[in-house]
Specification:
Radius of gyration: 18 Å
Largest sheet: 7 strands, mixed
Shape: globular
Number of domains: 2
Strand order of the largest sheet: 8-10-7-11-9-12-13
Number of strands: 14
Helix content: 25-40%
């Protein structure tokens, strides 16, 4: 985990170079009536030791579509490109993408295969449909809005603890370990986000970093009142430990006071885990327990 100032400066430079600066406040970029996103991973940097290659591909697909869902898009289709070191990995990845297609109720369109010398990699393009060209980005939060956490936190923190040998994998029950592979992904969250969200971002690089995506784009202060972790994690970590939690693919969403009840009713109707965890104020930065929390999170 590192401070993100230099990383964000690099991102802004390459966006200027490639002429897509207009998209910097978006998790997924709009094009007419669709949202588009692409995410890529190398296995050496992103495949957890307890994952199979079909698990890795499945999670890559969910990770890419997560940006679409948090922007108010209905999952629609996927494309993928891979580089692999052998055919068995390729076959396993294709199985994972097939599972992701079923899980996300999204068609798999084009695929592309390449030979890789030393390290397998995958890129996934996700496509979502939007209604009335209405989408949500990171920029619309206003003082008086409420911050909603959709989905639990903590699975990335659990993975970090396992990777650092702070706990032993044999001591983790299979159901909980599986959640580090298949995120607590709230597929239908696009509905309340599309209807009532004012800003949003998904948690891939850490919960603090996710909230700062909204803070930096909307130029606001967030007062965080609560952190909701999976109850199964209560004996393994404190809620505050989940501030660092990465690749949970849960969502930070803001909504106005006027629409808060409607947002939560929609969550209840669709059986989506939604928690009111904070308030938007004038100013800048993230505050929890009266302490300023600096921006930090994962980068490559």
């Amino acid at each position: 985990m590192v401070r993100l100032e230099s990383w964000k400066a690099l991102l802004e430079e390459i966006m200027r170079n490639s002429k897509n600066e207009w998209c910097k406040d978006f998790d997924a970029c709009p094009l007419d009536d669709i949202l588009l996103n692409i995410d890529g991973y190398s296995s050496s940097r992103s495949k957890l030791p307890w994952m199979k290659y079909d698990d890795w591909a499945f999670k890559a697909a969910l990770a890419s579509m997560s940006d679409v869902v948090v922007s108010g898009g209905r999952p629609y289709a996927l494309l993928y490109s891979v580089g692999v070191t052998d055919e068995n990995i390729l076959k396993s990845i294709s199985i994972g993408m097939g599972k992701a297609s079923d899980y996300l109720k999204s068609s798999i369109l084009k695929g592309d295969t390449n030979k890789s010398a030393n390290d397998s990699w995958i890129d996934v393009v996700s496509i979502g449909k939007i209604n009335n060209k209405r989408y949500v980005n990171r920029k619309g939060a206003k003082p008086g809005d409420y911050l909603i956490q959709i989905g639990y936190l903590g699975y990335g923190t659990l993975s970090q603890m396992l990777l650092e040998n702070k706990i032993k994998i044999d001591n983790i029950n299979d159901k909980l370990l599986r959640k580090t592979i298949i995120p607590d992904f709230q597929i239908d969250a696009w509905v309340p986000i599309y209807k009532y969200g004012t800003s949003s971002s998904d948690n891939s690089d850490g919960w603090v970093s996710t909230i700062y995506n909204i803070i930096d784009s909307s130029k606001v202060k967030v007062v965080l009142d609560a952190i909701e972790i999976d109850p199964l994690l209560k004996d393994l970590m404190n809620n505050e430990d989940a501030l660092n939690s990465w690749e949970d693919y849960n969502f930070a969403v803001t909504t106005s006071e006027e629409n808060l009840d409607d947002f939560l009713e929609e969550c209840t109707r669709l059986n989506i885990r939604c928690f009111v965890v904070g308030k938007i104020e004038e100013g800048y930065g993230l505050y929890y327990n009266n302490n300023r929390i600096e921006n930090f999170g994962w980068t490559w």
